[in-house]
Amino acid sequence: MSEIPLRRVAVLVLEGAKPLDVGIPAQVFTTRASMPYEVRVCAAAPGLVTGGDGLSYHVAHGLEALEWADLVFVPGYRFPDREDPPPAVLEALVAAQERGARLAAISTGAFALAATGLLDGRRATTHWHYARALARRHPRVRVDENVLFVDEGPVLTSAGAASGIDLCLHILRGDLGVAASNHAARRLVAAPYRSGGQAQYVPRSVPEPQGERFAATREWALHRLGEPLGLERLARHAAVSPRTFSRRFVLETGYTPMQWVTRARVDRARELLERSELSVEQIAAETGLGTGANLRLHFQRVLGTTPSDYRRTFTGGQ
User: Fold this and answer.
1) First and final CA of the chain: distance in angstroms?
2) Do residues 284 and 266 touch, judged by C-beta distance below 8 A?
3) How confident is the model at residue 254 (pLDDT cuts 50, 70, 90)?
4) Cα separation of 312 and 1, whole Å?
5) By the 8 A CB rule, do 241 and 201 touch?
6) pTM confidence score
7) What Å distances lie between residue 19 and 14, 30, 161, 228, CA to CA?
8) How many whole angstroms separate alpha carbon 103 and alpha carbon 100?
């Protein structure tokens, strides 16, 4: 395996920053042997920053951290609809993006990105409570309040704090592969992946015990990806009818059951391509995708690449 270059992450703390929103990227991307990232927490100027929910932050770095970073997180902050961040902050964000850094907002951090103009004409999301306010304040932004996160390439946005974890894991999958993302999810005791298109909250009419059974069924299925996993078998494990299972499953995950199974199989295939020397045919058989041709078809459809090209990405072309 080729050595993965260190990636530099800046977490920009604004006045009123929410503690969970700040802590999520700082914890997910903190430097570990398995995580080639370096994190710097920064603000408009070094020193004490008043946060939200009774906490403050002693920040060591100023806006120069945005010149250094490859990835900039903007955590949510209080009263984002009242006024924009200082002009120097907005200018630094624009300069970072123009230099090639990715910008990622958690929750109401989307308001700061919108104030730069970088979200104009793009799809974006934020916490459902502020979605309409974002649309009113920045009418050129295509606000989608019904998703967990949105990846628009150089700029990414997410809903509430928990969806910030989903966004971080999504970025990890793109940077390091599904194995590293799953390892981080296990460390966080978080779901390995949730669809960015999943609704921000499940309607209250969905009984909670049933949601728990579906989570157990998904975990059960992940250990049996090489076996036949049709709708009837999944519904039988969840102890509901296939029709009920299918309808409720979409509400929980953003996928139909069969779409979810296919994505899970593709992700397992990605992990095997990253970490094993099994052939494409062997991986297709082990993951339940049947043949190499079928694996290639789903890889192209889901990831826009081939298994061989994907493997080369994680083996340095060897």
Assistant:
1) 8
2) no
3) confident
4) 10
5) no
6) 0.68
7) 11, 16, 9, 44
8) 9
